[in-house]
Amino acid sequence: MIKVMIIEDDFKLRTMIAEHLGKWNFEPIMISDFEKIDENVIENTPDIVLLDINLPSFDGFYWCGKIRRVSDVPIIFISSRTENMDIVMAMNMGGDDFIQKPFSLDVLVAKMNAVYRRTNQNHQSDKDIITAGELVLNLSNGIATYQEKEVALTKNEYHILYLLMRKSGQIISRDEIMRALWEDEQFIDDNTLTVNINRLRKKLETIGLADVIVTKKRQGYLLQ
């Protein structure tokens, strides 16, 4: 169930939104303490935040900035303000969408679904890569990228680089690398590993990464 934090000081509107969201299988979290909103976000870990601009003490712009320091949760501003500058400010402060009062609750739900879906897709894309400095390895296609230059890797090269990047800066023994490849049902002996390491080094050189894989005598390799 998607958790939605409703930060709205109008009790009637807050309750109405919560009741409607409950019908759509959302889990509404109503906030009545407007002095510790960022702490509430940390404590409740919502999937979406609905944030009014006109709030007691500090406005929604202030709280959006505070939330962005502790969370990348999608934030939809809800406000009676109609000035373009308010919308621009909301987006610049880290908001993901803006809906003006009065609004249709069904339109609000549609916007929430769109923002949630878009955010989840972005997070899923993040899971498809691993990085070490400026070196990026795409886990879905085995392509290594550095400063906009890319090179395709073989399956063995991909697995070796993945292990080195996952433990970047640490020495990885030859035995550990061979065990990792063996678990993937790819038998590889000591000589074959040396050949694959050298090929991987040459491919990384073609995209501007010379000597990035360092040999530690009688210990193994590390990615620096």
From TrEMBL:
<feature type="DNA-binding region" description="OmpR/PhoB-type">
    <location>
        <begin position="127"/>
        <end position="224"/>
    </location>
</feature>
<keyword id="KW-0597">Phosphoprotein</keyword>
<dbReference type="Pfam" id="PF00486">
    <property type="entry name" value="Trans_reg_C"/>
</dbReference>
<feature type="domain" description="OmpR/PhoB-type">
    <location>
        <begin position="127"/>
        <end position="224"/>
    </location>
</feature>
<dbReference type="GO" id="GO:0000156">
    <property type="term" value="F:phosphorelay response regulator activity"/>
</dbReference>
<feature type="domain" description="Response regulatory">
    <location>
        <begin position="3"/>
        <end position="116"/>
    </location>
</feature>
<dbReference type="Pfam" id="PF00072">
    <property type="entry name" value="Response_reg"/>
</dbReference>
<dbReference type="InterPro" id="IPR039420">
    <property type="entry name" value="WalR-like"/>
</dbReference>
<dbReference type="GO" id="GO:0006355">
    <property type="term" value="P:regulation of DNA-templated transcription"/>
</dbReference>
<keyword id="KW-0805">Transcription regulation</keyword>
<dbReference type="GO" id="GO:0000976">
    <property type="term" value="F:transcription cis-regulatory region binding"/>
</dbReference>
<feature type="modified residue" description="4-aspartylphosphate">
    <location>
        <position position="52"/>
    </location>
</feature>
<keyword id="KW-0804">Transcription</keyword>
<dbReference type="GO" id="GO:0032993">
    <property type="term" value="C:protein-DNA complex"/>
</dbReference>
<dbReference type="InterPro" id="IPR036388">
    <property type="entry name" value="WH-like_DNA-bd_sf"/>
</dbReference>
<keyword id="KW-0238">DNA-binding</keyword>
<dbReference type="InterPro" id="IPR001867">
    <property type="entry name" value="OmpR/PhoB-type_DNA-bd"/>
</dbReference>
<dbReference type="GO" id="GO:0005829">
    <property type="term" value="C:cytosol"/>
</dbReference>
<dbReference type="InterPro" id="IPR016032">
    <property type="entry name" value="Sig_transdc_resp-reg_C-effctor"/>
</dbReference>
<dbReference type="InterPro" id="IPR001789">
    <property type="entry name" value="Sig_transdc_resp-reg_receiver"/>
</dbReference>
<protein>
    <submittedName>
        <fullName>Response regulator transcription factor</fullName>
    </submittedName>
</protein>
<keyword id="KW-0902">Two-component regulatory system</keyword>
<dbReference type="InterPro" id="IPR011006">
    <property type="entry name" value="CheY-like_superfamily"/>
</dbReference>
